[in-house]
Design a protein that fits this description.
This protein has 282 residues and is an alpha/beta fold. The protein has a domain of 194 residues: Alpha-Beta Complex (Spore Coat Polysaccharide Biosynthesis Protein SpsA, Chain A), CATH 3.90.550. The chain has 9 helices and 15 strands. The strands form 4 sheets. A 7-stranded mixed β-sheet has the order 3-2-1-4-7-6-8, with helices on both faces. The protein has a 3-stranded mixed β-sheet with strand order 5-13-9. A 3-stranded antiparallel β-sheet has the order 10-11-12, with no helix packed on it. Strand 11 and strand 12 form a beta hairpin.
C-alpha cells in the first residue's frame, strides 16, 4: 500500500481519533493510518484498542533536542501544529513503500474516499485545501508526495514550523498555515484542491446547501468527502459546544456527535475514567 494517512493526538482527543479511524473504515479508504501520540496516555489507550491497519507511534518524548525545547515553550496545540511536517517526514524516512501521505486533523470525519479526487489530479507534489471563505490554505488536510519537489517542500515546511508556529496572527502567519501558502511561490506542482466537499467546516458551511439524498450527503451538487469539525468540544457525554461562533447544527453534526458518544463509551469500557480528559469547560 503506497498511501498513508497521518494524524496527531493527545489524551484529550482520543475519541476524535477513533472517529477518524471509523470514518476511514466506513469509506473504505485504502491507506495505512499513522497516529502520532504526544503523550503516554493516548499512546497506551490506542495500543489497547488494536486498530486494524493502524500504526500507533509514541511521540511523547521527542528525539530532536530542538523539539524538546519547543514542547516546553509552546502551547500543546502549537506544539502539535509544529509536529505535522515532522510526523510526515518520519513516515517517509521509516516506511520506504509509502509514496504519498495525507495529513488529516484528528477532528476530520470522512464521508467518502478522498483518493477518488486525488487520483484525478495529473501532476502534483503537494496538495492543499483552502478555507473556502478565502483562497488561503488550511492546515487540516495536506498531501505530500515522495518526489523531489514534495520532499523539499516538506522539509522547508518543517523548518518554518520549528522557527515559528503560534496560535496568533503575525504578518500573514497563523500556526502552520501561513507557511503553506508560500509553497506555491517556492516549489513546482503545488495544487490547491477547491472541491466544496473537501474541508467543509464550521466557518464555511453557510456558503453551501447541505442535503442528504439516498443516504449520501451533498454540498450543493458535490458529494461531501470530509467535514472538518474544528473547535468542537464535548462538555460531557451528551452536550457539546464549539469554539467557533457559528451555528453547529444539522445532520452532519448530529451524526458526528453520536459517533463521538459511541467512541467515548468504547474507551470507558476499556479504561473507566479515561473520558475525564475529553470534557471541556468552555
Amino acid at each position: 500500500m503506497d498511501t498513508a494517512i497521518c494524524s496527531l493526538t493527545s489524551k484529550s482527543r482520543v475519541h476524535h481519533i477513533l472517529a477518524l479511524y471509523e470514518s476511514m473504515m466506513k469509506s473504505n479508504i485504502k491507506a495505512q493510518l499513522f497516529i502520532f501520540c504526544v503523550d503516554k496516555d493516548s499512546y497506551f489507550i490506542l495500543k489497547k484498542m488494536e486498530l486494524h491497519g493502524t500504526n500507533i507511534i509514541d511521540f511523547s518524548e521527542p528525539e530532536e533536542a530542538v523539539l524538546k525545547g519547543i514542547k516546553n515553550e509552546r502551547k500543546q496545540n502549537e506544539y502539535c501544529w509544529t509536529l505535522k511536517p515532522v510526523a510526515l517526514l518520519y513516515i517517509f524516512d521509516n516506511y520506504c513503500t509509502i509514496d504519498q501521505i495525507i495529513y488529516a486533523d484528528g477532528d476530520i470525519y470522512f464521508f467518502a474516499d478522498p483518493m477518488v479526487l486525488i487520483k484525478r489530479i495529473k501532476r502534483w507534489s503537494v496538495i492543499l485545501t483552502t478555507h473556502k471563505i478565502n483562497e488561503k490554505a488550511n492546515g487540516g488536510f495536506v498531501c505530500f508526495r515522495r518526489d523531489k519537489n514534495g520532499l523539499e517542500a516538506l522539509n522547508w515546511w518543517k523548518e518554518q514550523c520549528i522557527s515559528w508556529c503560534y496560535a496568533y496572527n503575525d504578518n500573514g502567519n497563523f500556526g502552520d498555515q501561513g507557511h503553506l501558502d508560500k509553497l506555491k511561490r517556492l516549489y513546482k506542482n503545488v495544487y490547491y484542491l477547491k472541491h466544496p466537499g473537501m474541508n467543509t467546516a464550521p466557518w464555511n458551511q453557510k456558503l453551501y446547501d447541505i442535503k442528504v439524498m439516498d443516504g449520501i450527503i451533498y454540498i450543493n451538487d458535490f458529494r461531501l468527502i470530509f467535514f472538518h469539525f474544528s473547535g468542537l468540544r464535548m462538555l460531557d457525554k451528551e452536550a457539546y459546544t464549539t469554539c467557533w461562533k457559528y451555528d453547529a447544527k444539522g445532520f452532519v453534526y448530529d451524526y458526528y456527535i453520536e459517533v463521538l458518544r459511541k467512541k467515548i463509551n468504547e474507551i470507558e469500557m476499556l479504561s473507566p475514567g479515561f473520558s475525564q480528559y475529553f470534557f471541556s469547560d468552555l
